[in-house]
């Protein structure tokens, strides 16, 4: 009965959405013929890793600058031309200011008021408020907090050599990113490697776990029928999660206000912003990795002051973005870097030589300056993000009508209306041999000073592009580098008999994951 009902609902949905099938073809755009029910089924049932769906959409019409496709049930215009990507994400940004939001406004306040989901002027105001929290000087201050967590990781394996023989590294790095988020975003200290079931870690996992058939189905139904979900009161996130994080933020704010406590973390910065005592020094958040960068001053945000009052819920929502954007994603970057280093001992050896020689200058101390002196480390990180772009694709929503002019002989002008969605298939671009010869090869030399200059602009997009790019890129890179440096000074990352090589990507979830885990060993350096 249940399956019959689901089938009936999907059939009715497909009937009403029949028009969508030819959405792009009707606008004169090349588009593959699809069966919508099957498109939905593919995503819910996950017949292959999500990255491969994105790569397929990129490879569909290799000689076209763009083509029509679907994401879930939504028609999207897939871009594969660098000029067009620049046009839409930078030059004509005013027409494409928003990200696609799968949870409609008003249904989940802790999600819809975070920076990723905010739209239009509300987004501009919040981005202006948050940008100073991610500048070099703030990263330097937060580095101290991150570094404490990284030291705990390597100390743990020094003290427990029996555990270091075979480690599920994704679990390890998820615990580390949890502790970094706890201290940098929420002002809470925890050690999730020692206290494996601490409440903060369990809640973070619960908040960010979108894996599995039922969760995928809930996500799809939520996207299709948000109003129905709102009316019947089923929230997207577990109530326990929102209650827990709301309480932490409220208690922390109260305690700090009563005791006049200052700490270099996100809660403090937002409390300062709320008081209107925000310091707008140094507002350009230029990325260290990721070439397609725009100074935020170009969109006139520095001068803007926060118009609406910042509520406790706003503060909770921004702190929570660290979980949604920086828990799983950064841990995935770390684990894939560890995977590539274990598989390429010559690269690992060269990296360790660089680490040793830089740290010698800094008396063995892993400082912010020392990390930023490690050039090869930056090349290895960049190549990991090239081969494994953690954000597999990115999108923009058209907010003002726009026409893409015809350039090639087989094109017609394409008029986009408000609500049309643009998709940039980053994984497909990063694996295209036209831009990255022998794309399956892990080769940090692609990012040496000379070769880096030859990478086509807007074809290296690990952190997106333009004013809506990743605000947390510096934070993510720093926390990744510091933990790997801490480990590599003491250990070699080695393949064990449990290591899965080559990696078999999991078919569930929207991230790179391994069905059988990422098992590697840490072997004490001679
Ligand atoms: C390896 C880790 C990470 C990767 C690969 C990544 C990648 C991305 C990408 C591709 C986007 C969309 C950019 C665009 O549309 O142009 C994005 C947006 C965003 N990311 Fe990250 N991210 C990472 C970690 C983080 C962390 C640690 C934070 C912590 C705050 C963060 C916060 C955000 C926010 C708030 C946005 C939305 C920005 C806006 O709409 O203004 N990300 N990220």
TrEMBL record:
Q: Does the keyword Endoplasmic reticulum apply?
A: yes
Q: Does the keyword Membrane apply?
A: yes
Question: Main localisation, per the record?
Answer: endoplasmic reticulum
Where does this polypeptide localize? Endoplasmic reticulum membrane; Microsome membrane
Q: Which PROSITE patterns match?
A: CYTOCHROME_P450
Its topology with respect to the membrane?
A: Peripheral membrane protein
Q: What InterPro entries does the record tag this protein with?
A: Cyt_P450 (IPR001128), Cyt_P450_CS (IPR017972), Cyt_P450_E_grp-I (IPR002401), Cyt_P450_sf (IPR036396), Insect_CytP450_Detox (IPR050476)
Family, according to the entry, reads as follows: Belongs to the cytochrome P450 family.
Give the protein name, as stated in the record: Cytochrome P450 9e2-like
The beginning of the lineage is: Eukaryota, Metazoa, Ecdysozoa, Arthropoda, Hexapoda
What gene, per UniProt, encodes this protein?
LOC108562565
């Amino acid at each position: 009965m249940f399956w019959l009902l689901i089938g009936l609902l999907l059939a009715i949905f497909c009937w009403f959405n029949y028009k969508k099938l030819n959405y792009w073809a009707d606008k004169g755009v090349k588009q593959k013929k699809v069966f919508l029910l099957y498109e939905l089924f593919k995503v819910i049932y996950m017949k292959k890793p999500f990255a491969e769906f994105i790569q397929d959409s990129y490879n569909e019409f290799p000689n076209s600058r763009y083509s029509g496709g679907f994401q879930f049930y939504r028609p999207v215009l897939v871009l594969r031309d660098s000029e067009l990507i620049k046009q839409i994400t930078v030059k004509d940004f005013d027409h494409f200011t928003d990200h696609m939001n799968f949870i409609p406004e008003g249904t989940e306040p802790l999600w819809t008021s975070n920076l990723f989901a905010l739209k239009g002027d509300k987004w501009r105001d919040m981005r202006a408020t948050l940008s100073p929290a991610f500048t070099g000087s703030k990263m330097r201050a937060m580095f101290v907090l991150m570094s404490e967590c990284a030291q705990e990781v390597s100390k743990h394996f020094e003290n427990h050599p029996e555990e270091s023989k075979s480690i599920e590294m994704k679990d390890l790095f998820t615990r580390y990113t949890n502790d970094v988020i706890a201290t940098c975003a929420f002002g809470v200290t925890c050690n999730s490697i020692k206290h494996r079931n601490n409440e903060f870690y369990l809640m973070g996992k619960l908040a960010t776990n979108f894996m599995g058939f039922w969760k995928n189905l809930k996500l799809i139904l939520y996207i299709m029928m948000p109003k129905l979900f709102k009316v019947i009161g089923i929230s997207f996130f577990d109530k326990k999660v929102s209650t827990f994080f709301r309480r932490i933020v409220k208690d922390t704010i109260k305690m700090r206000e009563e005791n006049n406590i200052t700490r270099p973390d996100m809660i403090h910065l937002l409390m300062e912003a709320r008081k209107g005592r925000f310091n707008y020094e140094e507002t350009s958040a230029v990325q260290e990795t990721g070439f397609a960068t725009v100074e935020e001053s170009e969109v006139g945000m520095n001068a803007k002051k926060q118009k609406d009052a910042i509520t406790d819920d706003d503060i909770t929502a921004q702190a929570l973005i660290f979980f949604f954007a920086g828990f799983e994603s950064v841990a995935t970057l770390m684990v894939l870097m560890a995977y590539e280093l274990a598989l390429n001992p010559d690269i690992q050896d060269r990296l360790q030589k660089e680490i040793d020689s830089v740290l010698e200058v800094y008396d063995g101390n892993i400082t912010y300056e020392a990390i930023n002196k490690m050039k090869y480390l930056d090349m290895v990180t960049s190549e990991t993000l090239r081969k494994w772009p953690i954000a597999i694709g990115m999108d923009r929503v058209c907010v003002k009508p726009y026409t893409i002019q015809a350039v090639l002989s087989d094109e017609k002008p394409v008029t986009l209306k408000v609500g049309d969605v643009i998709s940039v298939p980053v994984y497909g671009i990063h694996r295209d041999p036209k831009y990255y010869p022998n794309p399956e090869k892990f080769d940090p030399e692609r990012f040496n000073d000379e070769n880096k200059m030859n990478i086509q602009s807007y074809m290296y997009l690990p952190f997106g592009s333009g004013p809506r790019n990743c605000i947390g890129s510096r934070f993510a890179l720093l926390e990744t580098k510091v933990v790997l440096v801490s480990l590599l000074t003491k250990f070699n990352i080695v393949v064990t008999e449990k290591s899965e090589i080559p990696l078999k990507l999991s078919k569930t979830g929207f991230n790179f994951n391994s069905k059988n885990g990422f098992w590697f060993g840490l072997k004490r350096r001679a």
